[in-house]
Amino acid sequence: MNPEHPPLAKLFAALPLLALHPRFDTSEQNWKAAVQDAFAFQFLYGNDADRLLFWSRAVMVLIAALGAAVTFLWARDLFGPAAGIFAVMLYAFCPNLLAHGMLVTTDVPVAAFSILTLYLFWKRGEQPSWLSDFSTGLALGAAMTVKFSGALLPIVLAGFCLVRKQIKSLF
Question: At CA 97, angle to CA 93 and CA 100, rounded to 5?
Fold first, then answer.
């Protein structure tokens, strides 16, 4: 019913609703006619809207925390623990993250999963294995299925492969 973005971020945000058991009436005319805005309004305000929004937003905060954790790990691996803490501070006070981190949108998930993909790809260059390939592929798949702009990530990874190959041939 919502074709603007791939579904994964919306599915993550909807996970807490499984435990909340909101009223979801598919016999409604707005559902049958695919009138998205009217059905969404009816669904949200036909239930406890504050509770639904709180738990859906909590998922986005957890995804933002995943991005912070990966940022820390990557900076720590490159430059030490102090750099990891500094990188997390920069991440946490980024205006875009502060603005979008608690909203149910696709911006924070694509950022977090892109950071995760790039980190795992970098780690894979240091210690190649089928497990690192698999985890990088899962992270890449997640980045590509939360927002359409995530589909550019394979191009970025291909560019990194070419650059890595050129750098290795110099030494």
Answer: 145
**For the chain, what is the mean pLDDT?**
91
Q: Is the pTM of this model over 0.90?
A: no
Mean pLDDT within 88-103:
92
Q: Got the DSSP string for 129-143? A: -HHHHHHHHHHHHHH
- Angstrom distance (rounded) from CA 59 to CA 4: 20
Distance, in Å, from the CA atom of 102 to the CA atom of 132, rounded to the nearest integer, reads: 30
Amino acid symbol at 95:
P
Among the listed residues 12, 133, 5, the one whose alpha carbon sits nearest the alpha carbon of residue 66: 12
pLDDT digits (tens, 9 = 90+) for 64-83: 999 999 999 999 999 999 99
Q: Which two tokens stand for residue 81?
A: 């623990």
Enumerate long-range contacts of 148-152, CB under 8 Å, 24 or more apart: 148/5, 148/6, 149/110, 150/6, 150/110, 150/113, 150/114
Q: Counting beta carbons within 10 angstroms of the beta carbon of residue 71, is it exposed (0 to 12), middle (13 to 18) or buried (19 or more)?
A: buried
